[in-house]
From TrEMBL:
Protein source organism: Spongiibacter nanhainus
Gene3D superfamilies in the cross-refs: Hotdog Thioesterase
Pfam family of the protein (one): 4HBT_2
Descriptive protein name: Acyl-CoA thioester hydrolase
Xref: InterPro entries: HotDog_dom_sf
SUPFAM superfamilies linked: Thioesterase/thiol ester dehydrase-isomerase (SSF54637)
C-alpha cells in the first residue's frame, strides 16, 4: 500500500493550507489511539475551512444554498498511530481540478510525522446541477494546488 503514495504527499510544506489542532480526550479509542471517526472530522473541518477561503463566504453550508460543494468520494489511509494528548496539523490543498469536480488532498501530521492521508472528490453544484469551475473561481482553486515534485 505505501508504495503507491507519492513522497510529496508525506511532506507538510507541500500543502498550501495548514491548520494546527489540539487533540481531545474524546478523540481516543479504547487503545488510546486517535479513532477513525475523530480523524475523519479533522479532515472534514479543514476541507470546510478551505472552501470558505476559496468561495470567500460561509453560506455554502446552509440548507437550500444555491451554490454548494458535494463530497462524492472520500478515502482515508492510516499510516501511523496518532495519540492524545498532543497537537496535530492537517495539511490541505487541491490535488486536481476538472470541469465541475476537483480532488482535495490532505495529510495529518503529529510530531513532524505524517500519520494519515485523505483523498476526497468533490463537485461544485449550482441548484441541483454540477457547475463548471471557471474564471476567478478556478484561479482561487489553482492557487491552492498541492506542490508537485520537482
Amino acid at each position: 500500500m505505501a508504495r503507491d503514495i507519492s513522497s510529496q504527499r508525506l511532506e507538510l510544506d507541500n500543502y498550501p493550507l495548514q491548520k494546527l489542532m489540539e487533540t481531545r480526550y474524546s478523540d481516543m479509542d479504547s487503545y488510546a489511539h486517535l479513532n477513525n471517526g475523530s480523524i475523519g472530522r479533522l479532515y472534514e473541518n479543514c476541507r470546510a475551512l478551505m472552501h470558505i477561503e476559496i468561495y470567500q463566504k460561509t453560506d455554502l453550508f446552509v440548507p437550500n444554498a444555491t451554490e454548494r460543494t458535494l463530497l462524492v468520494e472520500c478515502r482515508l489511509r492510516y499510516l501511523h498511530e496518532g495519540h492524545f494528548p498532543g497537537a496535530v496539523t492537517v495539511g490541505t490543498g487541491i490535488g486536481g481540478i476538472g470541469r465541475s469536480s476537483y480532488r482535495v488532498h490532505q495529510a495529518l501530521f503529529q510530531d513532524g510525522r505524517c500519520i494519515g492521508l485523505c483523498d476526497a472528490v468533490m463537485v461544485r453544484v449550482l441548484g441541483d446541477t454540477p457547475s463548471a469551475i471557471e474564471g476567478e473561481l478556478r484561479d482561487r482553486f489553482s492557487a491552492l494546488l498541492v506542490k508537485a515534485p520537482e
